[in-house]
Design goal:
By secondary structure, this protein is an alpha+beta fold. The chain folds into 2 domains: 112 residues, Translation, Eukaryotic Peptide Chain Release Factor Subunit 1, Chain A (2-Layer Sandwich), CATH 3.30.960; 126 residues, 2-Layer Sandwich (Nucleotidyltransferase, domain 5). Helix content is 44%, strand content 16%. The strands form 2 sheets. A 5-stranded mixed beta sheet has the order 7-6-5-8-9. Strands 3-2-1-4 form a 4-stranded antiparallel beta sheet, sandwiched between helices. The two termini are 52 Å apart. The N terminus is likely disordered.
Length: 288
């Protein structure tokens, strides 16, 4: 069984110019996942690697590399507490590395470089989910793994505002108009609660709810610059798992979402004259 090791720059330079070669970078948490699930995922990864190699090199050159990959996978250390692995194979070298970082699958038919690990590092996705209806609201803190319900310090039910409407509104003969005003008042309070949460968690927000409710919320919110997506539907009774599943397609382009959030932060800093331009200003702005 291979000994756990860490990559050093000088060990990688010695692997250059050895062709054909392939690197498979994979999540690997045997203490969290079943061995059969990991083996199935690695089998698919080897099949992908084989197709990539066969597209670039003849069979007689590819076959020794594929055999080495199978041997490396067969001898993996399933007693490790590491989070990921990088498997490298060429006609003359075979090596397995174990890491403490979370990664996404990456298969490279080339020499093994540090940047392959960096590029495969799993992005840390953190965001807020704001579920709204005409009667209640929920807010979650989300990340790569789960949603956590946030307990805010504002009332979460519209009934709290039914006795807090001006008399002239309560005397309206049009019940629909009264409902509209009541809804706006409720959403104003929910937006204030969101403002408080954003002070603690400065993160992009996904807002989920019925189209009519979200239409009202768009008009009254003071946090529009932090709202990255409005998802229409009735979701207040959805479980955390169901909500995560609904969010999946919206989180796929996380890099773009994060970039939008960074640009908004830059715009805010510019408005408050807290942006330094050029090396001289940056050096001057450093704390003593």
């Amino acid at each position: 069984m291979p000994t756990e090791t860490y990559i050093e720059e000088n060990s990688i330079t010695g692997l250059r110019n050895l062709l054909p070669s392939v690197s498979i970078i994979e999540p690997f948490q045997p203490m969290m996942s079943s061995k059969s699930d990991i083996e199935c995922r690695l089998k698919l990864a080897i099949e992908k690697a084989e197709k990539k190699l066969m597209a670039k090199y003849p069979m007689e050159k590819t076959l020794p590399v594929i055999i080495k990959l199978h041997n490396l996978v067969h001898n993996l250390n399933y007693n490790t507490h590491k989070k990921s692995i990088a498997i490298f194979a060429s006609p003359v070298i075979e090596k397995t590395y174990y890491f403490d970082i979370s990664v996404e699958e990456r298969i490279v038919t080339d020499e093994f470089k540090i940047r392959d690990i960096i590029c495969s590092k799993k992005q840390n996705t953190e965001y807020l989910v704001f579920l709204l209806s005409a009667e209640c609201s929920k807010m979650y803190l989300g990340n790569n793994e789960k949603l956590t319900l946030i307990k805010s310090n504002v009332p979460e039910n519209i009934a709290a505002y039914k006795n807090d409407i001006p008399e002239r509104v309560s005397n309206f003969s049009d019940p629909d108009k009264r409902k509209e005003i009541l809804l706006d008042k409720f959403l104003h309070h929910m937006d204030e609660g969101l403002s408080l949460v954003l002070k603690a968690y400065n993160l992009p927000v996904f807002v989920m709810g019925a189209e009519k409710v979200l239409g009202h919320f768009k008009k009254i919110t003071h946090n529009a610059d932090m709202l990255v997506e409005f998802i229409h539907g009735s979701y207040t009774d959805a479980s955390e798992a169901q909500t995560q599943e609904i969010l999946k397609p919206y989180l796929q382009d996380w890099k773009n979402i994060k970039q939008q959030n960074i640009l908004l932060e830059l715009a805010k800093a510019t408005d408050y004259e807290k942006v330094a331009y050029g090396m001289e200003e940056v050096l001057e702005s450093r704390p003593a």
